[in-house]
Amino acid sequence: MANRYKKNMDTLCREKPFGNLIGEYLAYETKEEEQCMVIDGIPCFYENGNYYRMHSENQIEEAGLLMEGLEHTKDYFLVVFGMGNTVLLRELIQKTSDGTRILVIEKNPYVIKYVFSHQDMTEIIKSNKLVLSCGEENILEYTLVACMGAGWENLAQNLRVISMVNYGIYENFRKDIMKKVTKSILMEITSLGNSLEDVMNGLYSCYQNVDTCIVSNSIKELENQFKGVPGIVVSAGPSLDKNLELLKQAEGKAVIITTDAAYRACERIGVKPDAIASVERDKPTYDHFYKDKVFDQNMVLVGPPLLWPDIMKEYPGKKVLMSKTLTGTDGWWGNFFDSIEHVLMGFSCSNVAHAVLDRMGCNPIIVIGQDFAYTGDKRHSEDSKYYANNQLLEDEEDTIWIEDIEGEMVKTSEALNLFRHSMEDQILVSNTTLIDATEGGAKIKGSKIMTFQEAIDTYCTTEKKKSMNDCLEEKVFDMEKAKEKYQEILTGVEEILKDLDDVEAAIEEHCGRINQYEKFDFEHATEEELVNIILEMQKGNSLIDFIISEKKNLVTFYQQNLKQTIIYVKKIGNDVTPETVKRNWELQENLMYLIELATKLVRVKYKEVYQFIEEKLKKAEEK
Known about the structure:
Radius of gyration: 28 Å
Strand content: 5-15%
Helix content: 40-55%
Shape: globular
């Protein structure tokens, strides 16, 4: 049995993400009493004073019942709770479509040990359809990240749950896991960005900010400069009013970064933060938080290069600009500048502040005013610039209810909840402790709850020796270097325009194939005709692969439409019927139209970029 266990574990560590973590977890989980034993010929596991069967008397019959309703031609995202019935796992691998993905989660570590010791699981583990995880929280989170990274969210419309016999004793565990799965799917789809218009607005801000990008400071200059120094994120949630006055006690003893919405609050009590974090690309952010306001020139601005241009022009202090993504528009633009590093900065200003403090080595990171909810039915702190419109909330279309720090339910919005999930993910990948000293609002998973006074008394006890501004180099605009950068960007835009030509040519070719079925009678088509149509449409997959793999700088402009189309195609399934083929054709025709339209709009925007940079180069050469 020891050899079989080792063989299975070696395969798991070699073949699957975080398999080594599962091995370490199983090695740690040991108890003296017998946790699994055979009773009446059936292996059982011990839980809460009782033994429960891992599977029923007839594993084959049980597998058939649990697989009822699964269509062998449809691609599923299957979440299987429990691994006691290995017959079921083998059947799922053999009798589901090639595109099906199976996440097996076994909460009880002794069941995994027993199965690995008594069954040869190597072929099951090796299957590219299946990923195994366990009940340890961090391993589960890592596994879900890996699954989403492999595109499992494309199967969101075909999510199914299968539970082994007796898994009802873990009902709360199952509910919690399904919340995690749906959250991971939502985060992955949302991370693709906003509308095409929003992406192009971001590109507009980037090229308008080109001179600021040239002289911006880098997050690398701040790397681990404040190791072990506490960091504080000041956000503008309703609970900020409870403990704002205490912030003065922490000044000089922690690195303080305020969100732009909370800066007014810091200003009122006379606290000068080390930095202000911003993330939005629109003009209202400038109008609300920056226009006609005075900022200390020693306070650093941190955020992406797509901030509204007037913010960049008027802000007097140093600026640390970071790219939100490695690919797409953000990645393409950031690659032109040595100072702009990629940072996992999430979706909100507070996520940006957390990311910067983490890179600087601050530990712990203390958050105040970070409700992520409408505490007391209010949107913002009274000190927020927004407070003039801070009327009590009515239930709105996107209002949802989540758990607060006291275990009660509190209102929030889909957007705020997304920001909360983003911070929870930051906590997961960080080596720092997050102290939630908000004293209200939503529960932030992975955080430690304290009052702000307790956090100050515990961690903010020593004067810090320097500020963020002290760590950053003084940058001077060099016209000759700027001219080189302008020319580099012009060359990059020319390459983008060539890529757009290639995409347009590929779209035109494929549209010629699918447009021939505009008036086709799908209802009375023969099976041979339907198969031929499918073969023609499958050539569209090559177009999608061409965009994703070869035109990576353009993916941002298409990815929402691509993702949503793929999800709905997966929902339809792989059966060849007049209805499914016609629906697939309609989806593909619509996708081609959207890609064609997006390509034309993007071309116009990049020509604007070219003209703007070309004019700057011309003026620089005249000087």
